[in-house]
Amino acid sequence: MERARISLLTVCGLDELDGHAQSRVTHVLSILDPAWPDPEGFGAWERHHRLTLRFHDIIEPIPGQILPEREHVERILAFAEDLAADAHQRDEGHLLVHCHMGISRSTAAMTMLLAQAYPNEDEAAILTRLVSIRPQAWPNLRMAEFADEILGRGGRLAAEVSRLHARQIAEKPHLAETFRRLHRSREVETALKVMAA
Q1: 121, pLDDT greater than 70
Q2: pTM for this structure?
Q3: Are 139 and 164 in contact (CB under 8 A)?
Q4: Residue 46: its pLDDT value, please?
Q5: 97 φ/ψ sector (left φ>0, alpha ψ -120 to 50, else beta)
Q6: Structure confidence by residue, pLDDT tens digits, 62-102
Q7: Is 82 helix (H, G, I), strand (E, B) or coil?
Q8: Residues 158, 164: Cα–Cα separation, whole Å
Q9: Measuring CA to CA, which residue among 130, 116, 106, 32 is closest to residue 74?
Q10: Which of 62, 73, 84, 168 is a Cys-bridge partner for 146, taking CB atoms 3.0 to 4.6 Å apart?
Protein backbone atom coordinates (compact mmCIF):
# COMPACT_ATOMS: atom_id res chain seq x y z
CA MET A 1 0.00 0.00 0.00
CA GLU A 2 1.59 3.25 -1.06
CA ARG A 3 0.80 6.01 1.41
CA ALA A 4 0.84 8.86 -1.06
CA ARG A 5 -1.70 7.34 -3.42
CA ILE A 6 -3.89 4.97 -1.40
CA SER A 7 -5.18 7.75 0.77
CA LEU A 8 -8.68 6.46 1.54
CA LEU A 9 -9.07 3.45 3.83
CA THR A 10 -12.38 1.88 4.78
CA VAL A 11 -13.38 -1.12 6.90
CA CYS A 12 -16.97 -2.31 6.90
CA GLY A 13 -19.32 -5.25 7.22
CA LEU A 14 -21.51 -6.88 4.60
CA ASP A 15 -24.55 -4.82 5.51
CA GLU A 16 -22.60 -1.61 4.85
CA LEU A 17 -21.28 -2.46 1.40
CA ASP A 18 -24.13 -0.85 -0.53
CA GLY A 19 -23.36 2.46 1.17
CA HIS A 20 -19.90 2.45 -0.42
CA ALA A 21 -21.00 1.75 -4.00
CA GLN A 22 -20.46 5.39 -4.98
CA SER A 23 -17.26 5.85 -2.98
CA ARG A 24 -14.90 5.27 -5.92
CA VAL A 25 -13.35 2.24 -4.27
CA THR A 26 -10.37 1.04 -6.31
CA HIS A 27 -9.32 -2.02 -4.28
CA VAL A 28 -11.35 -4.46 -2.20
CA LEU A 29 -10.22 -7.15 0.19
CA SER A 30 -13.17 -9.46 0.92
CA ILE A 31 -12.93 -11.93 3.80
CA LEU A 32 -15.89 -14.28 3.86
CA ASP A 33 -16.98 -17.50 5.51
CA PRO A 34 -16.15 -20.44 3.22
CA ALA A 35 -19.73 -21.22 2.15
CA TRP A 36 -20.86 -17.58 1.87
CA PRO A 37 -21.71 -16.37 -1.66
CA ASP A 38 -19.95 -13.41 -3.21
CA PRO A 39 -21.83 -10.18 -2.40
CA GLU A 40 -24.05 -9.37 -5.39
CA GLY A 41 -23.72 -5.62 -4.90
CA PHE A 42 -20.18 -5.52 -6.27
CA GLY A 43 -21.64 -5.84 -9.77
CA ALA A 44 -22.85 -2.24 -9.55
CA TRP A 45 -19.52 -0.83 -8.39
CA GLU A 46 -16.99 0.90 -10.58
CA ARG A 47 -14.19 -1.31 -11.83
CA HIS A 48 -11.92 -2.33 -8.96
CA HIS A 49 -9.29 -4.90 -8.01
CA ARG A 50 -10.51 -7.47 -5.53
CA LEU A 51 -9.04 -10.32 -3.51
CA THR A 52 -11.47 -12.71 -1.83
CA LEU A 53 -10.31 -14.98 0.98
CA ARG A 54 -12.48 -17.52 2.76
CA PHE A 55 -11.98 -18.70 6.32
CA HIS A 56 -13.89 -18.50 9.59
CA ASP A 57 -13.47 -15.86 12.28
CA ILE A 58 -11.90 -18.16 14.85
CA ILE A 59 -8.57 -18.32 16.67
CA GLU A 60 -8.53 -21.98 17.80
CA PRO A 61 -9.54 -25.16 15.94
CA ILE A 62 -13.27 -25.83 15.83
CA PRO A 63 -14.58 -28.96 14.06
CA GLY A 64 -15.98 -28.14 10.64
CA GLN A 65 -14.51 -24.63 10.52
CA ILE A 66 -11.47 -23.25 8.69
CA LEU A 67 -8.89 -21.39 10.76
CA PRO A 68 -7.09 -18.32 9.47
CA GLU A 69 -3.66 -19.61 8.47
CA ARG A 70 -0.29 -18.06 7.78
CA GLU A 71 -0.88 -18.40 4.02
CA HIS A 72 -4.01 -16.22 4.30
CA VAL A 73 -1.98 -13.50 5.99
CA GLU A 74 0.76 -13.85 3.36
CA ARG A 75 -1.85 -13.37 0.62
CA ILE A 76 -3.20 -10.24 2.34
CA LEU A 77 0.29 -8.77 2.55
CA ALA A 78 0.98 -9.72 -1.08
CA PHE A 79 -2.26 -7.99 -2.08
CA ALA A 80 -0.86 -4.83 -0.51
CA GLU A 81 2.22 -5.14 -2.72
CA ASP A 82 0.00 -5.46 -5.80
CA LEU A 83 -2.04 -2.53 -4.56
CA ALA A 84 1.09 -0.38 -4.26
CA ALA A 85 2.18 -1.28 -7.79
CA ASP A 86 -1.26 -0.43 -9.17
CA ALA A 87 -1.31 2.83 -7.22
CA HIS A 88 1.39 4.17 -9.50
CA GLN A 89 -1.17 4.12 -12.32
CA ARG A 90 -3.72 6.22 -10.43
CA ASP A 91 -4.01 9.68 -8.98
CA GLU A 92 -5.58 8.29 -5.83
CA GLY A 93 -6.78 4.97 -4.49
CA HIS A 94 -9.45 3.84 -2.07
CA LEU A 95 -8.98 0.52 -0.28
CA LEU A 96 -12.01 -1.12 1.31
CA VAL A 97 -11.59 -4.17 3.53
CA HIS A 98 -14.67 -6.06 4.66
CA CYS A 99 -15.68 -9.22 6.44
CA HIS A 100 -19.14 -10.15 7.72
CA MET A 101 -19.38 -7.64 10.58
CA GLY A 102 -16.40 -5.38 9.89
CA ILE A 103 -15.07 -6.00 13.39
CA SER A 104 -12.53 -8.83 13.52
CA ARG A 105 -11.08 -10.39 10.35
CA SER A 106 -11.26 -7.15 8.39
CA THR A 107 -9.70 -5.08 11.18
CA ALA A 108 -6.93 -7.65 11.60
CA ALA A 109 -6.27 -7.36 7.87
CA MET A 110 -6.23 -3.56 8.04
CA THR A 111 -3.87 -3.72 11.03
CA MET A 112 -1.32 -5.74 9.09
CA LEU A 113 -1.69 -3.59 5.99
CA LEU A 114 -1.02 -0.49 8.06
CA ALA A 115 1.94 -2.14 9.77
CA GLN A 116 3.36 -3.06 6.38
CA ALA A 117 2.75 0.40 4.93
CA TYR A 118 4.30 2.19 7.92
CA PRO A 119 7.27 0.00 8.87
CA ASN A 120 8.91 2.72 10.97
CA GLU A 121 5.79 3.50 12.98
CA ASP A 122 5.39 1.90 16.38
CA GLU A 123 2.60 -0.52 17.11
CA ALA A 124 0.59 1.88 19.28
CA ALA A 125 0.47 4.35 16.40
CA ILE A 126 -0.61 1.59 14.01
CA LEU A 127 -3.52 0.63 16.27
CA THR A 128 -4.43 4.28 16.74
CA ARG A 129 -4.71 4.54 12.96
CA LEU A 130 -6.88 1.42 12.92
CA VAL A 131 -9.30 2.75 15.54
CA SER A 132 -9.60 6.03 13.65
CA ILE A 133 -10.77 3.98 10.65
CA ARG A 134 -12.98 1.52 12.59
CA PRO A 135 -13.64 2.45 16.25
CA GLN A 136 -15.32 -0.88 17.10
CA ALA A 137 -12.29 -2.89 15.93
CA TRP A 138 -11.52 -6.21 17.63
CA PRO A 139 -8.78 -7.68 15.41
CA ASN A 140 -8.52 -11.44 15.16
CA LEU A 141 -5.50 -12.24 17.35
CA ARG A 142 -4.42 -15.32 15.39
CA MET A 143 -4.16 -13.25 12.21
CA ALA A 144 -2.29 -10.52 14.08
CA GLU A 145 0.18 -13.08 15.45
CA PHE A 146 0.99 -14.38 11.97
CA ALA A 147 1.40 -10.83 10.67
CA ASP A 148 3.60 -9.91 13.61
CA GLU A 149 5.94 -12.79 12.81
CA ILE A 150 6.01 -12.18 9.05
CA LEU A 151 6.64 -8.45 9.44
CA GLY A 152 9.31 -8.96 12.09
CA ARG A 153 7.50 -6.96 14.77
CA GLY A 154 8.87 -9.12 17.60
CA GLY A 155 5.52 -9.79 19.28
CA ARG A 156 4.77 -6.09 19.69
CA LEU A 157 1.97 -5.94 17.13
CA ALA A 158 0.09 -8.85 18.69
CA ALA A 159 0.62 -7.34 22.15
CA GLU A 160 -0.82 -4.02 20.99
CA VAL A 161 -3.83 -5.84 19.55
CA SER A 162 -4.40 -7.35 23.01
CA ARG A 163 -4.14 -3.87 24.53
CA LEU A 164 -6.86 -2.73 22.10
CA HIS A 165 -9.00 -5.69 23.18
CA ALA A 166 -8.49 -4.59 26.79
CA ARG A 167 -9.61 -1.04 25.97
CA GLN A 168 -12.68 -2.35 24.17
CA ILE A 169 -13.62 -4.53 27.16
CA ALA A 170 -13.07 -1.62 29.55
CA GLU A 171 -15.48 0.46 27.47
CA LYS A 172 -17.98 -2.35 26.80
CA PRO A 173 -17.62 -5.08 29.46
CA HIS A 174 -20.17 -7.36 27.76
CA LEU A 175 -17.62 -7.99 24.99
CA ALA A 176 -15.71 -10.34 27.29
CA GLU A 177 -18.63 -12.77 27.49
CA THR A 178 -19.48 -12.28 23.81
CA PHE A 179 -16.03 -13.36 22.68
CA ARG A 180 -15.88 -16.21 25.20
CA ARG A 181 -19.10 -17.57 23.68
CA LEU A 182 -17.43 -17.36 20.27
CA HIS A 183 -14.66 -19.71 21.49
CA ARG A 184 -12.18 -16.84 21.69
CA SER A 185 -11.39 -16.99 25.39
CA ARG A 186 -7.65 -16.65 24.74
CA GLU A 187 -8.21 -13.14 23.41
CA VAL A 188 -10.34 -12.23 26.42
CA GLU A 189 -7.98 -13.71 29.00
CA THR A 190 -4.97 -12.00 27.43
CA ALA A 191 -6.85 -8.70 27.44
CA LEU A 192 -7.85 -9.15 31.09
CA LYS A 193 -4.20 -9.72 32.01
CA VAL A 194 -3.35 -6.46 30.27
CA MET A 195 -6.06 -4.71 32.26
CA ALA A 196 -4.77 -6.17 35.54
CA ALA A 197 -1.14 -5.25 34.90
Answers
A1: yes
A2: 0.94
A3: yes
A4: 85
A5: beta
A6: 999 999 999 999 999 999 887 766 655 555 788 999 999 99
A7: helix
A8: 10
A9: 116
A10: 73
